[in-house]
Design goal:
Elements: E1 2-8, H1 12-23, E2 28-31, E3 45-46, H2 48-56, H3 60-65, E4 69-71, E5 73-78, E6 81-87, E7 98-100, H4 103-114, E8 120-123, E9 127-134, E10 137-145, E11 148-159, H5 166-170, E12 175-177, E13 182-190, E14 199-204, E15 207-213, E16 217-225, H6 229-235, H7 237-247, E17 265-267, E18 272-274, E19 278-279, E20 282-284, H8 299-320, H9 325-358, H10 369-376, H11 382-389
Parallel strand pairs: 1-2, 1-11, 2-8, 5-14, 11-20
Antiparallel strand pairs: 3-7, 4-7, 5-6, 9-10, 10-11, 12-18, 13-16, 13-17, 14-15, 15-16, 19-20
The structure holds flavin-adenine dinucleotide (FAD).
Length: about 400
């Protein structure tokens, strides 16, 4: 099989880039190793910057018809004190809210919307296992399919295969680890239709938890100190659930949905980035280029922004053939600054708020100065709202639309 561009990984980065290149009339294939997108344990937040991209693509109306919940104000309880961290209503944005939607709905929507582009193919159950090289140049991938192995030759291979990217490893690209002091336990608790609560984050000494209203369930993220999962497991499930309900009494009835540690997924939090995103014929974007901390829930949106920037910078060049490595490097030169700034902010939050809160002890938890300021001065709440909702240097769609009349 021979294509202009082979994208490995059907996550937010890969599906959005596939859509954009298909829209531009480029011969492109997206390989996804799973048979479908129905997997739990993924980021489910679609931020104003991504909603804006969907708007620019003319997809927003259909997208917002899919079931979702909206969040505009991020409020919490810090040692029992009510705090407000961000207010997205203060954004100068067309869609000033975070849409909570299962990631599989988002990805399926992109897939269905892209079916009208004849040059785009999405191959499910197809796992890239190695790079094909011609000398120093990456010339495609070797993949495993249900029908047997296949070689896919491509002028450009884009690694969108996530934070455990096999392509970047095969390409020998070096990773700079920045580190994170926490891991996250991820589980669901049933929600009755009459239950509502605006509290989003709860912080107590030694404990931290986030709850998202997901319609018929609460998505819960219980934050633990890095490497403590085995200790939590050794204590047993019931003490964990007791802690959860003590922090968030609204979960009292629904917590019975968690019956064993099989219902609790561990997210090993990482912050890292590649120092070099390219080899000749190869580009890495999304989590494959930079794993983000869950702080701000920005991973999906950065992946989408990378895809938009890649299509803006490369679609025309791909029409002519293989972009040079310098041309591929334009993607890193454009996106590295937003990535670094976002990771720096995540580290600041980790070091100044999360690490202190997770330190064990009985002393009363003091609300950090920055959180007190944000709560007391409402206009300040627009700053984190901008950082979370729009991010640094938001991208807009400039890649060509081959179907435009
Ligand atoms: C539990 C959890 C909660 C999260 N919560 C949030 C959140 O609330 N908000 C947020 O913005 N982000 C969140 N994130 C992070 C977010 O999911 C990622 O940043 C985002 O999905 C990155 O998109 P991506 O397309 O780069 O990679 P991924 O979403 O990781 O997609 C990679 C895709 O590549 C496929 N793949 C991997 N290897 C191969 C291969 N060899 N061949 C073919 N296919 C392959 C995978 O199956 C996958 O579909 C969360 C992550 C986790 C794990």
């Amino acid at each position: 099989m021979s294509v202009r561009c082979c994208i490995v990984g059907g996550g937010p980065a890969g599906m959005m880039l596939g859509y954009l290149l298909g829209r531009a009339g480029i011969d492109v294939v997206v390989l996804e190793k799973h048979a479908d997108f129905f997997r739990d344990f993924r980021g489910d937040t679609v931020h104003p910057s991504t909603l804006q991209v969907m708007d620019e693509l003319g997809l927003i109306d259909g997208f917002l018809e899919l079931p979702h919940q909206r969040l505009q104000v991020l409020e919490g309880l810090f040692g029992g004190t009510p705090v407000r961290i961000a207010d997205l209503r203060r954004l100068d944005a067309k869609y000033p809210f975070i849409a909570f939607m299962p990631q599989w709905d988002f990805l399926n929507f992109l897939r269905e919307s892209g079916r009208r582009f004849p040059s785009l193919e999405v191959m499910m159950s197809t796992e890239a296992v190695d790079l094909i090289r011609t000398g120093e140049t990456v010339a495609g991938v070797r993949a495993r399919t249900p029908g047997g192995p296949i070689d896919i030759e491509a002028d450009l291979t884009v690694a969108c295969d996530g934070r455990h990217s096999i392509l970047r490893e095969r390409a020998g690209l070096a990773i700079e680890e920045i580190g994170a002091p926490m891991d996250v336990l991820w589980f669901r608790a049933g929600r009755r239709s009459d239950q509502t609560e605006n509290v989003f984050a709860r912080v107590e000494q030694g404990k931290m938890m986030i709850t998202f209203d997901r319609g018929d369930y609460w998505q819960c993220a219980y934050v633990i100190a890095k490497g403590q999962y085995d200790a939590v497991k050794a204590r047993g499930l019931q003490p964990l659930l007791d802690d959860v309900v003590r922090m968030a009494p609204i979960l009292t009835s629904g917590i019975s949905d968690v019956t064993s540690f099989d219902d609790v997924k561990l997210l090993t939090v990482a912050i890292n980035r590649l120092t070099r995103w390219t080899r000749p014929g190869l580009l890495c974007i999304g989590d494959a280029a930079h794993a983000m901390s869950p702080v701000g829930g920005v991973g999906v949106n950065l992946a989408v922004q990378d895809a938009v920037a890649s299509a803006n910078l490369l679609a025309e060049k791909l029409r002519r053939g293989r972009p040079s490595e310098d041309e591929l490097g334009a993607v890193r030169r454009r996106r590295e600054f937003p990535v670094k700034m976002t990771q720096r902010m995540q580290v600041v939050v980790q070091n100044n708020i999360i690490s202190g809160a997770l330190r064990p002890g009985d002393r009363p938890l003091k609300v950090p100065l920055i959180v007190r300021l944000l709560t007391a001065v409402p206009w300040l709440q627009g700053i984190p709202a901008r950082f979370i909702g729009l991010g640094v240097r938001p991208e807009h769609v400039h890649s060509p639309d081959a179907n435009a009349s």
